[in-house]
Amino acid sequence: MTFFGVSSPALLSQLLLGLVNGSFYATLSLGLAVIFGLLNVVNFAHGAMFMLGAVLTWIGLEELGLGYWWMLALAPLCVGLIGAALERGMLRFVYQLDHLYGLLLTLGITMVVEGLLRARYGVSGLPYPTPEGLGGAVPLGFMALPAYRAWVVGASLAACLGTWYLIERTRLGAYLRAGTENPRLVMAFGVNVPLMITLTYAAGVALAAFAGVLAAPVIQVSPLMGQNLIIVVFAVVVIGGMGSIAGSIVTGLSLGVIEALTKVYYPEASSTVVFVVMAIVLLLRPAGLFGRKK
Q1: Is residue 56 within 8 Å of residue 174, measured between CB atoms?
Q2: What pLDDT score does 58 carry?
C-alpha cells in the first residue's frame, strides 16, 4: 500500500523517527515554557544547558568512569545547581526589566559556556556509545525500531507529562503560578517566593540537561550541539504559545512528525518547514496555538 507514491512501511518508519526528534523538541521547549511562563525570562541559555547535560554525560563516562544511568540522574542535578547559581547571581536582577535584557544576559551566558567547553574539548563530535541494556531493536513489523530511540520517546513523554501534572494539577504548581503573579500575597502565607523562583529556573534548565543526556548516544556530543536546535525549539515555544506547558508538549511532538513528513515528500524544505508553520500560526493566531491573549 502506498500514500502519494511512498510505501506505508517507509512512511511509518519516517513518522516514528520524527516522533523521536519531536520528543527532544517537546522536552527542551517544555523547560523554556516553564521558565518564560513562570519567570517571564526568555532563556537563550537553554541550548547551552542542553549541550552541558550531554557533555557532562560524556565526561562522566570517559573521565570519571560513570555509566549512562548514573549520569541520567547526575547531569540534570549538576546543571540544575548551575542554573540555581545563575538565577541567584544574575537573572533575578532582570525580572522587572524588558525581555531584551534577559535575552541578552542569557545569550552572554551561552557564549561563555560554549567558549569554555570549546577550548577544552574542541568542536569535533565526541562519540557516546548506546547504553548497556538498550542496544538492539524492537521489531514492529514494518520496521525495526532501535531500542534506544524507543526509550528516548518513552522517557521524554514521562518527563513532559510529569512536569505538566506538577504545574497544572498540584498545590505546588498553584503556588508557583500565584507566586509569579502576586508574590507579596503568596509570601504573606509563609511561602519563600525567591527560593521557589530559583528552584523553578533550576528545574527548567535541568529538563534541558535531561534532554541532553538522552541525546548523547543519538547526536555526537559537541560544545556547539545546542546552537541549531535552540532556534527550532524557540519556534516550537512560539507556535505553542509562550509560557504554555501543554502547547510546548503538543507542538514539539507534532512538529517532529511534520518535519519527518516533509523529509519524505519535499526534503529540500525539511529544515525550514518549522519556521513556515510558525509564520502561518503567528499570522492567524499571534498568541500561539495554546497561548492566551493579554
Answers
A1: no
A2: 95
Range of the domain at 72: 2-132+143-284
Say which CATH number the domain at 154 has: 1.10.3470
Looking at residue 211, its amino acid is: A
HSE-CB for 281 with a 13 A CA cutoff: 22
* Separation of alpha carbons 47 and 59, rounded Å: 18
Per the structure, the count of domains in the chain is 1
Q: What is the pLDDT of residue 4?
A: 55
How distant, in Å, are the alpha carbons of 93, 189, 193, 269 from that of 183? 16, 10, 6, 46
How far is it, in rounded angstroms, from Cα 211 to Cα 233?
12
Judge whether 291 lies within some domain.
Answer: no
Q: Which residues of the chain have pLDDT under 70?
A: 1-9, 142, 180-181, 292-294
Report the C-alpha gap between 243 and 176 in whole angstroms. 13
pLDDT score of 2 = 62
> Measured between alpha carbons, how far is residue 74 from residues 6, 23, 57, 255 in Å?
43, 21, 8, 30
Phi-psi region at 285: left, alpha or beta (left = phi > 0; alpha = psi -120 to 50): beta
Name the residue among 251, 245, 260, 80 with its Cα closest to residue 176: 245
Euclidean distance between the first and the last CA atom of the chain, given in angstroms as a whole number: 48
In a domain, 292, yes or no: no
DSSP characters for 89-158? HTGGGSTTS-HHHHHHHHHHHHHHHHHHHHHHH-SS-B--PPPTT--SEEE-SS-EEEHHHHHHHHHHHH
Cell of residue 89, nine digits = 547571581
Q: How far apart are CA 144 and CA 117, in angstroms?
A: 36
